[in-house]
Write a structure and sequence with these properties.
The complex is a heterodimer of chains A (about 400) and B (about 120).
Chain A: H1 2-21, E1 36-41, E2 46-51, E3 56-61, E4 71-74, E5 80-84, E6 89-94, E7 99-105, E8 109-115, E9 121-128, E10 131-136, E11 142-147, E12 149-150, E13 155-156, E14 159-165, E15 169-174, E16 179-184, E17 192-197, E18 202-207, E19 213-218, E20 224-228, E21 236-239, E22 263-264, E23 267-271, E24 277-282, E25 288-293, E26 298-303, E27 309-314, E28 322-326, E29 331-336, E30 342-347, E31 353-358, E32 363-368, E33 374-379, E34 383-388
Antiparallel strand pairs in A: 1-2, 1-34, 2-3, 4-5, 5-6, 6-7, 8-9, 9-10, 10-11, 12-13, 14-15, 15-16, 16-17, 18-19, 19-20, 20-21, 22-23, 23-24, 24-25, 26-27, 27-28, 28-29, 30-31, 31-32, 32-33
Chain B: H1 2-16, H2 28-46, H3 60-63, H4 68-77, H5 93-105, H6 116-122
Classes of the chains: A mainly beta (about 400), B mainly alpha (about 120).
InterPro entries (chain A): Cyt_cd1_C_sf, Haem_d1_sf, Host-pathogen_enzymatic-act
Pfam family, one (chain A): Cytochrom_D1
Keywords (chain A): Signal
Chain lengths: ~400, ~120
Amino acid sequence: MIPGSKVKRAALAVSMLLLSACASQQPVALRGTGDLGVVVERATGQLQVIETTHRRALAQVSGLGDLSHASVVFSRDSRYAYVFGRDGGLTKVDLLTATIANRVVQAGNAIGGGISQDGRILVAQNYEPGGIKAFDADTLELLADVPATYGTDGKRSKVVGLADLPGNRFVYSLFDANEIRVTDLSDPRHPKTERYPSGKQPYDALVTPDGRYYIAGLFGEDGLSMLDLWHPEEGVRTILPGYGRGEQALPVYKMPHLRGWAVAAGRAYLPAIGRHEVLVVELGSWKEVARIPVKSQPVFVMARPDGREVWVNFAFPDNSWIQVIDTVGNAIVDTLQPGRAILHMEFAPKGEEVWVSARDDNKVVIYGTAKRDKRAELPAASPSGIFFTSRAFRTGF
Amino acid sequence: MFCRSILIAAFLPALVFPVHAQDTAPDDKRQRELVHMVRQDCGSCHGLTLQGGLGPALTPATLRGKPSEGLVATIVNGRPGTPMPPFRGLVDESEAAWIVERLVDGFPADGGPESAQQTADTR
């Protein structure tokens, strides 16, 4: 007891000293980062740092370049957000100080990125010049440049569907080359790449949360390409072949986005392309379990973290809706209209709330997921992506 | 209502006599909607700045020398075999022609969605 209180007194004295030493500066309260996140305000090229516990914005960060189609990954200590901008900008943002810690422009036209299993390597996926690039997550120093060349005349493909894998490997797809590639960055300055022919025009892809199955959505054919990363020697297999049943495809005004959030209750919930349906396939057997008619072309088909519900938003011009699928009955149980131009959703780490961006109403809407009641609205300028730090601990995010 | 009657009156000649696309420019409200749509929604493939993405760049430099009829047809009918969808039903030919002219000139900045400006200004 007595030694304990001595320690406490000493600690108090030290903190008083520190406080007085810092008295001339703004006092900063200590805080964790597990309930932090960012909202992309794409029209103004800014980022809002938000906090989910009290549903509030903490700060704004500007100077991030063109944030149309910006995506974000987090450092493994979840202090830093790495923002991949459309213009090839890669910016490291300190969430605690709401400042830019580092920034490079690494390509002419980029689509996103990933972070390695050990958190030391960032990988950008680029449209122009087509390929991936690896960077030191600490310094943003370039470690490797892996062009997505194909064919015999040195053409480069746009890269889509990048996901991190165990062993500091990254898997991605080549839109123009009908190929899936796995690049091993365990020795980051000497990358090794394996190539697997895939279906036509992969547009995005996901890896299951265990890092085993990589599923690429295809624009150019009815079906999806699946690579079992525990058995890569078996090559790519087509799943849900011919799901369009030969019918005329409906126009796709926005490409869907795929991530590991598609997995719920042992199944993958996948947006059909050119059909107003969510396709449900059983993992492993790859049998079609259901196809669920929805309002329009699905874009994000996102499971609540417990997997009991899947929330769906839609492409322009039907983008003011969200539909909720119950994964027991595989049927729509609710239809919401949170605002105009619903671009993205992000669930709280354990799923009790979901944040929804309504671009054309300049707001983020927060729902409780149990009763689907609206709990708060936050102003945001043309908000698009919402990213919470809990992504730092998920493979494929 | 007053404004609408004036607009209708202003466009009557255009309705009666077939004229070139540039003479049937969409009204101000529709222009604003179209600019917002091109920047934000076409922008999901072509980029908010129209510098390109999954779809090609739509800047004056990249469009220069391309016949405008072909560009209008691409908007209205899409391009089979590529992700470019047909916008028929969402955009008519004269609106597509207006969009093409603006793209070739250098596309205007987004004034925001119709009526959302108030929300943005008063928040």
